[in-house]
């Protein structure tokens, strides 16, 4: 029963997403500036991201409550994530990057470029971590 409800919920989310995408394609081509269609899609993507974050946190807490032996590994993972984010922020804050703001003709403020740069650095570290983990698991399986 739970799986059926989840499938219905996911189908509804997919239908809304497809409807908004079609709306943006159809109405966006008719308008000179398709702001309404773009705004609706951006708002929907923010809602989906918030739902993903809430569900990921809920599942993590639920899993730790059901299996307390995994708390140590979860806390170590959380500590590593915090260290990577703080290190990326400190590296980004120490550099000055001038990104042109085409709307005003100037440059974006330093705090906005720090957030963007630290986000890029975190993404690079996560990508490298994923590649290393995939390689390690394949090599480990080959020698096992």
UniProtKB/TrEMBL annotation:
**What's in the keyword line of the UniProt record?**
Membrane, Transmembrane, Transmembrane helix
Regions that span the bilayer: 5-26, 46-63, 75-94, 114-136
Question: Source species, please?
Answer: Candidatus Alistipes avicola
Please state what the protein is called. Answer: Uncharacterized protein
Domain of life of the source: Bacteria
């Amino acid at each position: 029963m739970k799986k059926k409800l989840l499938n219905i919920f996911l189908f509804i989310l997919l239908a809304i997403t497809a409807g908004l995408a079609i709306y943006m394609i159809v109405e966006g081509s008719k308008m000179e500036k398709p702001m309404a269609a773009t705004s609706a899609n951006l708002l929907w993507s923010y809602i989906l991201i918030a739902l993903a974050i809430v569900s990921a946190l809920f599942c993590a807490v639920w899993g730790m409550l059901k299996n307390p032996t995994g708390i140590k590994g979860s806390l170590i993972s959380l500590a590593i994530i915090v260290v990577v984010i703080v290190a990326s922020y400190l590296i980004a804050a120490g550099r000055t990057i001038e990104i042109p703001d085409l709307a005003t003709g100037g440059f974006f403020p330093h705090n906005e470029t720090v957030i963007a740069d630290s986000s890029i650095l975190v993404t690079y570290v996560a990508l490298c971590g994923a590649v290393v983990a995939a390689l390690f698991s394949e090599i480990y399986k080959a020698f096992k």
